[in-house]
Amino acid sequence: MSQNIKKFYEKYGLFFILFLISSFFGVLNNNFFSLYNIQNIFKQSSINGLLAFGMTFVILIGCIDLSVGSILALVGYFVGIMLVTIKLPIALVLPLGLFLGVFLGSLNGVLVAKTKLQPFIATLVTMTIYRGITLIVSNGLPVRNINNVSTFMKYINRGEIVNLPISMVIYLGVFVVLWFLLGKTVFGKHLYATGGNEEAARLSTVPTNKIKIIAYSVSGFLSALAAILYVARYNSIYPNAGQGAELDAIAAVVIGGTSMSGGKGKILGTLIGALIIGILNNGLNLLGVSSFYQEVIKGVVILFAVIADRKKLGL
Amino acid sequence: MLCEKNVKINHKMYTNRSKKYFREGEKKLEVRMQSIHKSFGDVKILKGVELDIENGEVHALMGENGAGKSTMIKVLTGVYTKDSGEIFIDGKQVEINSIKDSEKYRIAYVHQELNVIRQLSICDNIFLGKELKTKNGLLDTKKMNEICKEKLTQLGIGYLSPETLVGDLSIGYQQMVEIAKALLIDAKLVILDEPTAALTNKEIENLFEIINRLKSEGVSFLYVSHRMNEIFRMCDRVTILRDGQYIGVERIDSITEEKLVEMMTGKSIDNLYIKDEIPVGKIVLEVKNISKKNEFEDISFFVKEGEVLGFAGLMGSGRSEIMHGIFGSTRLESGKVFIEGVEKKINSPIEAKKCGIAFVTEDRKEEGLILDFDIKENFAIPSLKKFLKGVIVQENHISSTIDSYIKSLKIRTSGREQKIKNLSGGNQQKVVFAKWLETNPKILILDEPTRGVDVGAKKEIYEVINELKKQGVAIILVSSELAEVIGVADRVAVIHNQKLVKIYEGKNITQEEVLKTAFLEGVE
C-alpha cells in the first residue's frame, strides 16, 4: 500500500467501513436511506451510543465498566416510579435520575481507585448489586405507560427539531461536549495520560484517582441519560432492561478503534462504532433476516471491522 | 500453558552427561572471548572486549553502569549477536546465536530480575519448555519431580518439595530455583548478574555456600556485582571493562580495592564532568529525621540554592525511597520537611509541585514517560495549566514551547510528534528534563539521570545540571555512578543500609573515601 493511501485509510478507514455497510443495505432495500429510517437508526443507536461514550472514557483510562446496563435499569425504574407511582414533577425527577447515575458511577470509580479492585471485578460486583436492587424495587414487575403521565417524556420520544428527533439531538449534543472535553481540556489530557501509564502520570502530578472517579461518574451519568431515552422510547421499564448492554457498548468502542489497554482512542470512533452496530441491526431487520442469524452476522462484521482497524496500526 | 514449541530434549540428557559436546563425567569448560565488538546503530557498546574464564573459577566482571557488562553477557548467551570477534570454548571456535546455542555449550544465565513464574511449582519452572513426556504424550510428572528433587538436593535444599509454588518462596529460594535450572542443563558456566542485590545476609551466605559447592564440582561462575566485599571474598580473578573497552584482567589476591576502582572509573573521566563553583544561597529544602519503615531511617539533610547535593550508595540502600518520600509519591512515617524554612506536609506529587519540587525518576520507562505518547504530549502533562486559555488547552503554545526545549536541550528527534519509544535513552531523558523544567522548579531531584544514557548525552545532561545550578536551582543528584556523583555534586551524602552515614564536603572528596563508606560496612 502506498504511503498516501495508507494515511488516508488510517484517518478515514472507519468511515469507509460505515459507507460500505450502509451502501450494501441501501442497494438491497429502497427504504434504507429514507428520512424516517435514518431517524430511526439514530434513535436506536443513541441509547447504545450513550453507553458506549461513557465506556470510552472508562476504557481510555485502562479500565472497564460492566455495570452500565444495570445502572440503566435502576435509573429507569427510579424515573418510572417517581413519575407514575409517586407522581413527582418531571423537572425534579430527571435531574434526580441523572444524579443517581452519577452517584452509582462514582461508586464504581471509588471502588476501582481507592480499594484497588480490578475494574472488571469491581464493576461485575456493582453490576450484580445494582441489578439486584432493581429487582427488589420492582418486585419483578414492569412500570408501564410512563409517557402518559408526562408530556415531556412523550416529547423526548416523538419530538423533532427541524426533522431531527430529540434523542438524536441529545445524542449528538453529548458527543460534541465529550469531544471537547477529551480533546481540548486539561481533564482530557489527564485522562489519556492516566490510561497511557498510570504510574508515570501520577508522578507527573496527574490526580489519577480523581480522574478515575470522574471517568466512572461520566459513565454513570451517560447511563442515566440513556435510561431516560430508553424509558421515553419504550414507554415502560422492565427489570431486565439493559441486560447485556455493556457488551454492545464495548463492541462499539472497540470497533471505534479505542485500545482496550487504555490511553489511545477517540470519541468520534465510538460514535461511528455505535452507528455501525445500529445500522447492522436496522438493515438486517429491514431485510427480514431472522434474529438468530442477525447475531452471527453482527459478530462476524464486528470481527472484520476490528481486524481491518488493527491492520492500519500494523498490529 | 506449558509451551510445546520450545526445545524438546530427550530426558536421557539430564541423567547421562554424554551428549554431543561433552564426554561422560567431564566438567571442564574454558571460555574465551576475543576482541568482541557490538554496536547498536551508531552507538558502539563493546569495543574489542576480552574475557577468559578458566575451569572451575569464579570470575568477576566489573565496570560501571554502561561499561558493557550486560551486553557482553548477552553476546555470550546468544541474546545478542556480536558484530565481530571470536568466542572459543575449550579451545574450539564457536558461534553462539541463540540461547539454545549457549545452553548447548552448558552456559546458564541467572538474570538479575529473576525469570521465574511465580504461579508455577518449582518443578514446572525448571522444566519450562523442556517438559518430559511419557510415551502417550502426557507430562511425565513423576520423572520430572524425581529429577527436580535430585537437583534441589544437589543445591542443599532437598527439603523443599518440587511441587511448592515458586511464588511462595523467598527471593533467595527463587534464585536457587534459577540455579537449579542451570543444573538441569548441566551447566559448566553459570553467569550470575548482581545475584545478591535483593538477598538478605543469610540468603547471601547460602548462595555463597552453593557457589563454593558447585565450584568444587568443577562449575565455573561469571560473577557480576558492584559489591567489593563480595568480589574479594568469592572471586578468583576479575575482568574490568570501562566504556565498552577492555581494561584488564587481574588476580583478586594481587589487586587492591583502590586499584580496582581506579581501573573501573579511569582518570580521563574528569573532564566529562562539569562543576562550576558558585556562591550558594539560602537553604531551599531541609528534611529533618524523616523515616519510613523498611525503607529509610532518620534521614536529615539540607540543600541550598545553587548547589548540587549528591547521594551515593548501593542500589537498594534506600536512596530512591527517600526521594519518593520527599516528593509525596509515598508517605513519610515521621520527620519534617521544610521548604524555604516553612514546614510543609507533602502528601502527593501535586503538592510537591506546588512547593516547587520536580522529580526526574529513576525508571524513566515505568515512572517517567508514557512510551506510546509523543514528545509533546509527554512534555505538557505536569504544566498543562500554564497553557490554558479559559478551559481550552492551547496546542500551538505547547508546540512552540517544546520546540524551544528541543533546541536548547539538543533533543535529537524528527520532531515533537515523534513517539517517545522511538527515541534513544539520552533523548528520552532530556524530554523528562524538559517536562519538569517547564514547571519552574526550585528544587530538582534527579534519580539516576544518566542511566542507560550514552556518554555524549551524559555530558549534555551534566551541562544542563550545571546551568540550572547557576540559575539558583537546588539540585539533588542520586546516582550509582560514583564518578558522576563526585564529578557533579558539591557535597556528597552517603546512604548505607537505609541510613545517611556521612555527608562529604569540600573540593577533595575522593572516590575511595566515598566508596569505602558506601560499599564497605561502617565508617570510622
How would you describe what is shown here?
- The complex is a heterodimer of chains A (315) and B (524).
- Chain A is 76% helix and 1% strand.
- Chain A has a two-stranded antiparallel sheet with strand order 1-2.
- Chain A has one domain: Orthogonal Bundle (ABC transporter involved in vitamin B12 uptake, BtuC), CATH 1.10.3470.
- The mean pLDDT of chain A is 92.
- Chain A is globular.
- In chain A, helix 1 (3-28) packs antiparallel against helix 13 (291-313), helix 11 (245-255) packs across helix 12 and helix 12 packs antiparallel against helix 13 (291-313).
- Chain A has 315 residues and is mainly α.
- Among the domains of chain B are: 276-356 and 441-524, P-loop containing nucleotide triphosphate hydrolases (Rossmann fold), CATH 3.40.50.300; 373-439, no CATH class.
- Chain B is built from 18 helices and 22 strands.
- In chain B, strands 6-7-8-3-9-10 form a six-stranded mixed sheet, sandwiched between helices. A six-stranded mixed sheet of chain B has the order 16-19-20-13-21-22, sandwiched between helices.
- The longest helix of chain B has 16 residues, at 201-216.
- Chain B is globular and about 75 Å long.
- Chain B starts with 11 loop residues before the first helix and ends in a 5-residue tail after the last helix.
- Chain A binds chain B through residues 184-186, 189-190, 192-193, 196-197, 199-207, 263-264, and chain B through 327, 329, 348-350, 352-353, 359, 361, 366-373, 377, 380-382, 384-385, 388, 391-393, 435.
